[in-house]
Design brief:
The protein is an alpha/beta fold and about 625 residues long. It is elongated. About 50% of the residues are buried. It is about 35% helix and about 20% strand. The protein is built from 21 helices and 16 strands. β5, α6 and β6 form a beta-alpha-beta unit.
Amino acid sequence: MRKISFLLTLFLFWAATLFAKQIKLLTIGNSFSDDAVEHYLAGLAEAAGDTIVIGNMYIGGCSLETHYNNSRNNAANYSYRKIVSGVRRVTPNFRLSDALTDEEWDYVSLQQTSSLSGKGDSFFPYIDHLISYVRELALNEDVEIVLHATWAYAQDSSHKGFDNYERDQLKMYNAIVDATRGVAEKAGIGIIVPAGTAIQNGRTSSLGDTFCRDGYHLQLNYGRYTASCVWYEKLFEKPVIGNDYIPATINPFQARVAQWAAHHAVENPYEVTPVLLQEGAWQTIAPYFNTPAEHVGYFGLYRSPLFFYDGTPVKTKDDWKKRRKEIRNRWMTMMGEWPELIKDQEFEMLSEEKIDDFTRYKVRFSWTPNQKTEGYLFVPAKEGPKPAVITLFYEPETAAGIGGKPHRDFAYQLARRGFITLSLGTTQTTNNKTYSLYYPNREDASLQPLSALAYAAANAFEALAKVKDVDPGRIGVVGHSYGGKWAMFSSSLFEKFACAVWIDPGIVFDETKGSGVNYWEPWYLGYHRPPWDKRWNKTGENAKGLYPRLKEEGYDLHELHALMAPRPFLVSGGSSDPIERWIPLNHTVAVNELLGYNHRVAMSNRPGHSPTVESNEIVYSFFEWFLQ
């Protein structure tokens, strides 16, 4: 049920981005409203295509009684923090009356000082007056009043107000829940933002009771982020799970805990819902997102993707959208434009066999307009929506676990972990030693073969997306060696792939690696009309086709890597992709930084070309983290 709920929520988040909302929020609060709305709420809104103007009338430790007195005296005692388009400006000595008439606020939030937040009687008579005051001055006659239900202190807090709750965190939390429910009902407030429940939910995770930095104010990163997540989901009425805004100071596990804690709080605001996320997959892959110290900030001689081909710098996210289109269009022009995708087909089922706790089907479909192929589809027995992965190699049997060398049965192993998988390979051309795909034929191909392979994988995606229980938003791709090149071009050129793993393909041109990184061959980027007299050359010195032009004009494959941003990918490097490959990867890291993303580019390394048990565990954990 949890996975179904997760999938549904991701779908709803995707759908919600199509319907952008604009909100104006004024909080009349204190440092707890600072924690909750000033730092991450605008970023969450922007990532979902929404807009928010935030005003916070701030006095540290301010109670409702003090706000009441300030309103009656029209006192200029506030620091007015206003955030527009993510830019925060602070104006001192501000009055409530001026703030209320500064914008046509959609929502105005009220909250009690933290030590009294669980004492319902302390809200009155002040909150009734403040509600009337807001409605009297508000420029928007439909303004809605919001009650901010704040959080309980850390169990080891030394705050003197903790005595009000016998220095018991759960007693304080329950008191806040009861107080805010009662106050909202009595005062006629229709909206409660359950920030305190979100924080209490987060404390049930492996992060524990670490959500406060000093015993009562929120931890600066994931603590504040959790509160902002619940504000976002409550006000915008859109699920925060799947929101791509994750600041660099928050790791993906912390962000996922925060988003789930907030989502559960909105769904169940008056009770604690445990956040039972498995940290293991993240802990397995986390070290591999870090550029080694000796390569940090080093970009080598590779041409930066953050400059247009005419030399104009890419400075904004909108610039990157144009630059990304320019890169892809240039490469597609050089490699040959794809035919129309084949979107109206489903797999033809040739046979089926029950194996372990899944079914293996042999399937057939068209992967180019004039050629069909056969592969193996694995479907786990457990019903419900699932992520999926396409595996690519010389033939489909190896990844399906039907013979082949060890540690290459990716489709089989991922199926055991709950993924629907599709194993594909170029059996016919592998057998006749011409490899790859040639469209429309080998004698007169209009596409460079690696691009033809990517086109075939895109058509496989479209067919796989129609299989029962496959979530189209959670399909990845993986391949080793030849299959790694195939997976790299497929995921880079076809952006529906949610993530990718490239296993030692040789991620950039490198003529020192011999046949391991042989993009000059006619079955990769050196296609020319047959006959092919010399093949399996150690360098591209006598190459024909597109490859010599790419080298001469300064193109390299790091430009294709950049097309992945912000989608995550892992390079499982071996002899073809040693640790020095971080130099070209740094360019995609830089693109992701421009877009506001981190932990999107990863690389593991081993000495040899062949996958190992250890390297494969990283591969499987990568897919588990990003797709499950």
